[in-house]
């Protein structure tokens, strides 16, 4: 068996090769790309016997994505994606000085897959379809997060020089296309006060707003209210910043719509999509996000418990001496946790069983978030069973045990 630590950077990889006893066989710095991966395979061949099974080559690396990782998996090597924080804690065995080097990290990674491999999670062998869903689902969510950040910057800018706009466009939502067009058309208080009702109504008409004449009048009145003014050059500078943020939001809105269609297309093409969509509280976007983060490797989760642990819905017990606390699991996949919370919230209306279970948790004096997390935890277990048996969600079966207890 060969144990390899791979400390990757943007343009190179520092690797260390060990045998099963921990003896260092080789170290090398390899370039990123086809040339580097070919040299990697040559190192493996040089230090292994002719009959070495690729599965006997174990690689520890601090990422689970990219063409390099896919090339290692394609050959049949065992690849473990290790959290950088785990590596940092492991290195404290060697010393507490905090010293860091690429060779030192490669050595620690090799030691980790040799000594603690049973405690690490191998990179899942997800299908190409699941990987495609992951790429578009994460890109879509990242664009939404970026839109939120850009909106906050725009809002803060308006508060500093044009607060009337925040009041005027409240009924439209500031991230909507028509509100942004009006801001670009009149980014200063003086210019906005000169907008006519017909000009405002024309923008609302393109956005297909209802009651646009009434809304146009309300917006015009709000923009013409008296307010404190800044000197001309300062207001012009703020207007330039506002215009830039507004144009960026328009572009983000457009690309979010495009990516949403990509998410739906890739998700619906996956064979597990029907099972996910049968679950309460899951639509196409939420289903795509959950599938993307769980993956579709049938061997990744041996039971519902490791799936719940990875989801972050199961609690963590901290026991020491007479102290015994059960707390929420905060070290988790935040993208997955967000999607599961959305599912749990929606399931309260879609599933009578989920609602009863939630009410039961609340009756036990659990807080809102804790009760919702318990619903999500239960739904993850149900999803695991559906995927394992290749069956669709059934309300009566899913909550039969809890319904019996409730009746009793």
TrEMBL record:
Domain Transposase IS116/IS110/IS902 C-terminal residues, every copy: 275-358
Pfam families according to UniProt: DEDD_Tnp_IS110, Transposase_20
Region (Disordered): 299-324
Transmembrane segments: none
Ranges of Polar residues composition bias in the record: 311-324
Start and end residues of each Transposase IS110-like N-terminal domain: 4-163
Protein's name in the database: IS110 family transposase
Species name: Streptacidiphilus monticola
């Amino acid at each position: 068996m060969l144990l390899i630590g791979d400390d990757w950077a943007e343009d190179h990889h520092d690797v260390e090769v060990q045998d099963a006893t921990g003896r260092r066989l080789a170290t090398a710095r390899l370039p990123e790309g086809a040339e580097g991966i070919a040299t990697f395979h040559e190192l493996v061949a040089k230090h292994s016997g002719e009959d070495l099974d690729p599965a006997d080559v174990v690689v520890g690396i601090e990422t689970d994505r990219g063409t390099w990782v896919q090339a290692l998996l394609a050959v049949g090597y065992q690849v473990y994606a290790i959290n950088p924080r785990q590596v940092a804690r492991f290195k404290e065995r060697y010393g507490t000085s905090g010293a860091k080097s690429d060779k030192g990290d490669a050595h620690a990674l090799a030691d980790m897959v040799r000594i603690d491999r049973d405690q690490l999670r191998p990179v899942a062998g997800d299908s190409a379809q699941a990987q495609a869903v992951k790429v578009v689902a994460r890109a879509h969510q990242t664009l939404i997060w970026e839109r939120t950040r850009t909106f906050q910057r725009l809002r803060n800018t308006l508060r500093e020089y044009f607060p009337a706009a925040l009041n005027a466009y409240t009924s439209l939502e500031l991230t909507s296309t028509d509100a942004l067009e009006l801001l670009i058309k009149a980014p200063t208080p003086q210019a906005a006060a000169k907008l006519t009702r017909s000009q405002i109504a024309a923008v609302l008409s393109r956005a297909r707003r209802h009651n646009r004449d009434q809304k146009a009048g309300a917006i015009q009145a709000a923009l013409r209210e008296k307010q404190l003014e800044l000197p001309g050059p300062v207001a012009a500078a703020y207007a330039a910043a506002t215009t830039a943020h507004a144009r960026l939001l328009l572009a983000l809105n457009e690309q979010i719509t495009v990516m949403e269609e990509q998410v739906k297309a890739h998700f619906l093409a996956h064979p597990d999509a029907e099972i996910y969509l049968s679950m309460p509280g899951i639509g196409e976007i939420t289903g795509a996000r959950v599938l993307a983060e769980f993956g579709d490797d049938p061997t990744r989760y041996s039971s519902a418990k490791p799936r719940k642990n990875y989801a972050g819905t199961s609690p963590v017990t901290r026991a020491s001496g007479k102290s015994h606390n059960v707390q929420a699991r905060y070290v988790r996949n935040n993208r997955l946790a967000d999607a599961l919370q959305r599912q749990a919230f929606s399931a309260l209306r879609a599933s009578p069983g989920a609602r009863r279970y939630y009410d039961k948790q609340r009756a036990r004096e659990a807080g809102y978030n804790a009760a919702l997390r318990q619903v999500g935890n239960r739904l993850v277990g149900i999803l695991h069973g559906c995927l394992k048996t290749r069956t669709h969600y059934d309300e009566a079966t899913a909550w039969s045990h809890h319904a019996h207890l409730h009746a009793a």
